[in-house]
Amino acid sequence: MKPLVLIVEDDAALSRLLAWNLEAAGFEVATAFDGEEALARLLERRPDIVLLDWMLPGLSGLELCRRIRRDREFSDLPVVMLTARTAEPDRVRGFDQGADDYVTKPFSMAELIRRLQAVLRRARPGLLAGELRVGDILVDLERRRAFRRGRELRLAPTEFRLLRFFAENPGRVFSRLQLIDRVWGADAEIDPRAVDAAVRRLRRELNAAGEPDPIRTVRAEGYAFEAEAVRSADAAGR
Question: Fewer CB within 10 Å of terminal CB in the chain, N or C?
Fold first, then answer.
């Protein structure tokens, strides 16, 4: 699963250059050319990180960053500002509005990619790693295998992607529609009841040996993966 970066840049030539280089570096890319279009893209599919130009027509990048931070759904979304403003007060303003990093133009493409990767590692440590470990659960991303207390879990591809997504985002509540978007894909025509079925299958395998259930059903909202449940189980099993 490649990390999705939303590039918000009104310079079409620079946007294409960024997209080409980021795709070559292993990112999936979405683009927007102004702040309003970026807001629409966020609602269509949540990215893993936003690369945001400060100077945009209409809604500025600074204001867009402020709106992202004030929205409960996107408040933890990593944002890297891209701008020609080099003065220290401007950088401070960017960080004050919630930017995670600040890259000034002109810039080295290699450095920009490393900065994006560094922010992603801090925000979602498992996304660029070879494995995810949460308590007594290990998700091997390279071999696409998962284990609990050393017991290999027999997971179909959908359940593996679902477990991976939960393990990358412990504690957060996701609606069925959000899970469809992030696990099946934004274009997938999936009945929300299929999410319930996939969760049941994943639960059955996760808890086959009587371990505590890490998946919490949130009435009228969706599901959350409770990291404390698997950490407590791991501590109890030592």
Answer: C
CB 77 within 8 A of CB 69: no
- Please enumerate in sequence order all residues whose Cβ is within 8 A of that of 115, keeping only pairs 6 or more positions apart, or say none: 80, 101, 103
User: What is the dihedral sign for C-alpha 25, 30, 34, 40?
Assistant: negative
Task: Provide the CA 174 distance to its chain's centre, in angstroms.
Answer: 12
| Cβ pair 61, 54 in contact under 8 A | yes
Q: Is the pTM of this model over 0.70?
A: no
DSSP symbols for 148-196: ETTEEE---HHHHHHHHHHHHSTT-EEEHHHHIIIII-TT----HHHHH
70 and 107 belong to one structural domain? yes
Residue 183 in this model has a pLDDT that exceeds 90: no
Q: Is 46 helix (H, G, I), strand (E, B) or coil?
A: coil
CA distance 36 to 62: 13
Three-state SS at 79: strand
Where a domain ends, among 79, 95, 123?
A: 123
Query: Hey, what long-range contacts does 64-67 have (CB within 8 A, 24 or more apart)?
Result: 64/8, 64/35, 64/38, 64/39, 65/94, 65/97, 65/98, 65/99, 66/97, 66/98, 67/39
Same domain, 157 and 226: yes
Report how many domains make up the chain.
Answer: 2
User: Rounded distance, CA 186 to CA 179, Å?
Assistant: 10
**Final residue of a domain: which of 123, 139, 160?**
123
pLDDT band for position 222 (50/70/90)?
Answer: very high
Which residue range(s) make up the domain with 142?
131-236
